């Protein structure tokens, strides 16, 4: 089953001869003056995600931003290869890790092979985590972008644009974490503001006050699942194993800042 957005509305159509795992194909009109991909209709952005709902949601999200590329979503590149003659040539590949990690040798092997097979088409990774070690491993595999799930769809589009233009995207928050790890004086000077992103800092403050995830999500206007992602990132940065340990270490950091000031 294939989705088309050749007009401003979605219409559902069936492409005979395709398997039950056929792709989601989304197009948007070329005359919208909104956020656009770097290339034109002669190229395809292929989204890889084994989860049907995940890839369809991503494809629709890109379509709502009126990207000037054909957006095709598949469970694997094998599916893409079987129907590639029906689509525009590859412009970029967005690979959703779907909860997996570069700590898994199979992921490293799969991404490395993907980069090699489709070079020079840029491969950009969408991941749950923004850990510096993960990013370094991804870059060693040859990816041209590492997008954490905490960013919005517009930032995701710009990251892909950068990769298409020849650049490499990594989240700024991870660069700050790297600087903190390499420069002790930087870490000591700004223990709070340098460790966390603005959104993570807001979650940190809520955790200090003992608020539940649902309350944090409501007050910060975000999904509860996003709050959980932020908390996982905070736990990693604090080297904590649970919320209680996070709260204890955060309070220690805040007390150190207050004493220093």
Shape: elongated
What is the helix fraction of residues, given as a range? Answer: 40-55%
What gyration radius follows from the Cα positions, in whole Å? 20 Å
Count of helical stretches: 11
Helix/strand structural class: alpha/beta
Strand order of the largest sheet: 3-5-4-6-7-8
Largest sheet: 6 strands, mixed
Strand content: 5-15%
Tell me the distance between the termini.
61 Å
Average pLDDT, all residues: 77
**Total strand segments:** 8
Could you explain how this protein is built, in words?
- The structure is a single chain.
- The chain is an alpha/beta fold and 261 residues long.
- A six-stranded mixed β-sheet has the order 3-5-4-6-7-8, sandwiched between helices. Strands 1-2 form a two-stranded antiparallel ribbon.
- The protein is elongated, with a radius of gyration of 20 Å.
- It is 48% helix and 13% strand.
Sum up the structure in keywords.
261 residues, alpha/beta, 6-stranded mixed sheet, two-stranded antiparallel ribbon, 11 helices, disordered N terminus
Outline:
This protein has 261 residues and is of the alpha/beta class. The protein has eleven helices and eight strands.
List the helices and strands and how they pair.
Layout: E1 2-4, E2 11-13, E3 24-26, E4 44-48, H1 52-64, E5 70-74, H2 77-83, E6 90-96, H3 105-118, E7 123-127, H4 132-140, E8 145-148, H5 153-164, H6 172-182, H7 184-189, H8 198-208, H9 213-220, H10 224-238, H11 243-260
Parallel strand pairs: 4-5, 4-6, 6-7, 7-8
Antiparallel strand pairs: 1-2, 3-5
